[in-house]
Write a structure and sequence with these properties.
The complex is a heterodimer of chains A (293) and B (329). Chain A is mostly helical. Chain A is built from 13 helices and no strands. In chain B, helix 2 packs across helix 5 and helix 3 packs antiparallel against helix 7. Classes of the chains: A mainly alpha (293), B mainly alpha (329).
Chain lengths: 293, 329
C-alpha cells in the first residue's frame, strides 16, 4: 500500500476527512486504474469478443469495400472505407461503453456506490475512457491491418507526426464527447438507451464514414464543427492518402488538428460542468438510485 | 395410479383433478400434466410478451420522437450508400440506386429482427435482472422471447417501409405499383420473416452464453451477413466460395425475391454474367420459383438449426448457472 494511505491517528473525524493533496491525487489515479482494469482484464476472460468485435466488423467493412469495387471506384476510396471501418470501433466504444455507462451503473445499482466513494467521479470517467480505448484499439488495429493486407490498401503518408497527432487528438475529443454524453445520460432513463442507438448510423452518415465528408456540403461543415469523428476522419484521410484527388471543401489537416484540440478542451470542461450540474440535479430529484425506469 | 390419470375428475369421489383449479391431485402427488401449457396458454404468453416488448420499445418517448428514432437509422443507412454512389458517379443510374435503397431498407428489417431477441435476453438478464423469473414462469421461454422480438420486427418493418418511401419520393427510385408481383412478394416476405426470426433465436442463444458487451453482437452478425447477402452489391463481385456461402443463407434469397417482386427486371443480387448461380444453373437470373424453393430450403435448415442451438444453449445456461449472471465491465 502506498504510504499516502497509511493509517494516521487524528483528533477528530473532521481532521481525518481532511486529505493531503497527495492522498487526493493517489486516490484519483487508483480510481482511473481501478475503473480501467475490468475492461482491459475482461478481454482475456471472455474471448468471444475476438470473433464478434474483430472478425465480424472486418466483414462489415468489407461489404462497403465491395460496393466501391462493384462501382469500379479509385483505389483510395477503398482506403477511405478501411480507415472509416477502423474508426467505428472507437465511436461504438464511446457511445456504448462511455455515454451509456453511468446510466448502466445506475440500472445495476452501482452508481450510488460511485458517488458515495471518496473519489472524484471524473476519475471514473477517465478510467472508463482509458479501458475503453485499450479495448477499441485492438479491434480498430485488427480491422485496419487485416483489411489493409487483404484489400491491398496503399497509404501515402507524408506527415507521420501530424497523422499520429490527429489520431490521438481524435480519440481525446471522442472520449471527451463520451464523457459529456455519460453525464447527460445520468439524468435519463430508457431514452438514453434508445438515443444511443440513434447515434450510430446517422452519425456515420454525417461524419462521412465511407465517403469524403466534403460531399455533404453545409451538413458536412456542421459535422466538422461538432463531431470529432467527422473532423478526425477527414484529417486522417487527407494525411493518409496524400496523393489522392481529395474533394475540396474542408479545412486542411493542420486546421482540423486545431479544431480537435479545441474540441478536446471544450468537451472535457463541459463534461466536468455537466457532471457536477446534473449530479446535483439528479440528487435533488432523487434520480441517482432510480432504476429500470 | 399415474399422474396422467389424476388430471381427470375422479369418479365416485365427487372431487375433480387439478385441471379445474389449483388444488393438488386427490392422491397428493406431482401432476406433470399441469406443467404443460395448452395452445391458449402459448398464445396468451406470446400476446403478453409482444405487448410488453412493444411497450418497452415505444413508450419511452412521445410518438413524434419515436417516429424520428425509428426512421433515422434506416434512412441514414440508405443515404450513406446513395452518397457513395454519388461520389463515384453511379448515382445517375436509377437501377443501381433502387438496388441499394431496397437492400438498405430490407437490412434495417433484418437488424431489428435479429437484434430484438438477443437484446431481450440481455435486457432481462443484465439490466432488469428478471431473466431467471421469466424463465421459471409457466410460459415457454422461447415463446416469450419470440413475443418480445416481434415488437422490434414491427419497428424495423416500419423503418424499412419509410426508407422505401423516401427512396421513391426523394431519391428518385423508379417504382411502378402496377408491376409488382404480389404473390411472390407475399410468399418471400413470410418465408423471409421466419428465417430472420430463426437467426434472431440463434443469436439470443449465443447471447445467453456471453457477456454484457454482447449488445453489439447482433450488429456485428448483421454486418457480416451484409457482406454475403447481396444487400448492397451483387454478390458476383465476391469470390466463388463467398458467393456459395451467400447462396446458402436465406437472407440472400429473401432480398432477391423482394427485389424481383417489387422491381421486376432490376439488377439481380444473386445472378448476373459470370456469377456462381449462372455457372451452376446456366441461367443468368433466378426465376421466382427458384427463389421460393431456395428460400424455403435455406429457411428450413436455418430454422431447425436455430432451434437446436437454442435448446443446447438453454441446457448449458442452466448447467452453468448463466441465467442470473450479470457481467458488467
Amino acid at each position: 500500500m502506498s504510504t499516502a494511505f497509511v493509517y494516521r491517528a487524528t483528533a477528530s473525524p473532521q481532521e481525518a476527512a481532511v486529505w493531503t493533496r497527495r492522498q487526493i491525487v493517489m486516490t484519483d489515479l487508483r480510481t482511473i486504474v481501478g475503473r480501467a482494469y475490468p475492461r482491459v482484464r475482461g478481454m482475456a476472460r471472455e474471448k468471444s469478443w475476438v470473433f464478434f468485435e474483430v472478425l465480424l466488423p472486418f466483414l462489415a467493412t468489407s461489404a462497403f469495400v465491395f460496393v466501391y469495387r462493384a462501382l469500379q471506384a479509385p483505389p483510395e476510396y477503398i482506403g477511405f472505407v478501411v480507415l472509416g471501418g477502423a474508426m467505428t470501433a472507437f465511436w461504438l466504444n464511446v457511445i456504448w461503453m462511455m455515454a451509456q455507462q453511468l446510466w448502466w451503473e445506475k440500472s445495476q445499482g452501482n452508481l450510488e456506490l460511485y458517488f458515495a466513494a471518496p473519489m472524484n467521479i471524473m476519475s471514473v470517467l477517465f478510467g472508463m475512457a482509458f479501458g475503453g480505448f485499450i479495448m477499441a484499439s485492438t479491434r480498430a488495429a485488427a480491422v485496419l491491418v487485416v483489411a489493409t493486407v487483404v484489400y491491398q490498401v496503399a497509404f501515402a503518408i507524408d506527415q507521420w507526426v501530424l497523422l499520429l497527432a490527429v489520431f490521438f487528438l481524435t480519440l481525446a475529443a471522442l472520449y471527451g464527447l463520451g464523457m459529456v454524453l455519460a453525464s447527460l445520460f445520468l439524468m435519463w432513463g430508457r431514452e438514453a438507451w434508445h438515443l444511443t442507438q440513434l447515434l450510430v448510423e446517422p452519425v456515420y452518415f454525417v461524419s462521412g464514414l465511407n465517403f469524403p465528408v466534403a460531399r455533404l456540403g453545409m451538413l458536412g461543415s456542421l459535422a466538422i464543427a461538432i463531431l470529432p469523428l467527422a473532423v478526425g476522419l477527414d484529417a486522417m484521410r487527407q494525411l493518409a492518402f496524400a496523393d489522392a484527388a481529395y474533394p475540396l471543401g474542408t479545412p486542411g489537416p493542420a486546421v482540423e488538428a486545431l479544431i480537435l484540440v479545441a474540441m478536446t478542451v471544450v468537451f472535457t470542461l463541459l463534461a466536468r460542468w455537466t457532471l457536477r450540474t446534473l449530479e446535483r440535479r439528479a440528487r435533488q430529484e432523487g434520480r441517482l438510485s432510480v432504476r429500470w425506469q | 395410479m399415474s399422474g396422467f390419470e389424476a388430471t381427470r375428475p375422479i369418479p365416485g369421489t365427487g372431487s375433480t383433478g387439478p385441471g379445474t383449479g389449483l388444488a393438488p391431485p386427490e392422491w397428493g402427488g406431482f401432476d406433470p400434466a399441469r406443467t404443460r401449457g395448452r395452445a391458449g396458454d402459448v398464445l396468451r404468453s406470446f400476446k403478453t410478451s409482444t405487448r410488453l416488448g412493444w411497450q418497452m420499445e415505444a413508450n419511452w418517448t412521445d410518438p413524434l420522437l419515436f417516429f424520428i428514432y425509428s426512421v433515422a437509422k434506416p434512412v441514414s443507412s440508405a443515404l450513406i450508400l446513395v452518397f457513395m454512389l454519388g461520389v463515384i458517379g453511379g448515382g445517375g443510374n436509377p437501377e443501381y440506386r433502387a438496388f441499394v435503397v431496397i437492400g438498405s431498407a430490407l437490412w434495417s428489417f433484418v437488424l431489428s429482427g435479429i437484434s430484438g431477441l438477443a437484446w431481450s435476453v440481455l435486457d432481462d438478464r443484465e439490466r432488469y435482472r428478471m431473466l431467471k423469473y421469466v424463465y421459471v414462469s409457466p410460459s415457454d421461454f422461447l415463446i416469450v422471447l419470440l413475443g418480445r422480438g416481434v415488437a422490434r420486427v414491427a419497428v424495423g418493418g416500419m423503418g424499412a417501409l419509410i426508407t422505401l418511401g423516401v427512396g421513391v419520393a426523394v431519391l428518385g427510385v423508379p417504382f411502378d405499383i402496377g408491376a409488382v408481383n404480389w404473390p411472390l412478394f407475399a410468399i418471400v416476405m413470410i418465408l423471409g420473416l421466419v428465417s430472420i426470426i430463426a437467426i434472431g433465436v440463434m443469436l439470443a442463444a449465443i447471447c445467453l452464453q456471453t457477456r454484457q458487451e454482447s449488445w453489439s453482437y447482433p450488429e456485428a452478425v448483421g454486418g457480416s451477413l451484409f457482406l454475403v447477402s447481396g444487400a448492397i452489391f451483387p454478390i458476383l463481385v465476391l469470390p466463388s466460395v463467398v458467393q456459395a456461402i451467400g447462396m446458402l443463407t436465406p437472407l440472400s434469397w429473401w432480398i432477391e425475391g423482394v427485389r424481383q417482386s417489387l422491381f421486376p427486371g432490376g439488377i439481380s443480387s444473386i445472378g448476373g454474367t459470370g456469377s456462381l448461380f449462372e455457372t451452376l444453373t446456366g441461367e443468368a437470373v433466378p426465376n421466382p420459383a427458384q427463389i421460393v424453393l431456395a428460400l424455403l430450403a435455406a429457411g428450413t435448415v436455418t430454422t431447425l438449426l436455430s432451434i437446436a442451438v437454442f435448446r443446447a444453449s438453454d441446457r448449458r445456461a442452466k448447467d452453468r448457472g448463466l441465467l442470473d449472471q450479470t457481467t458488467g465491465s
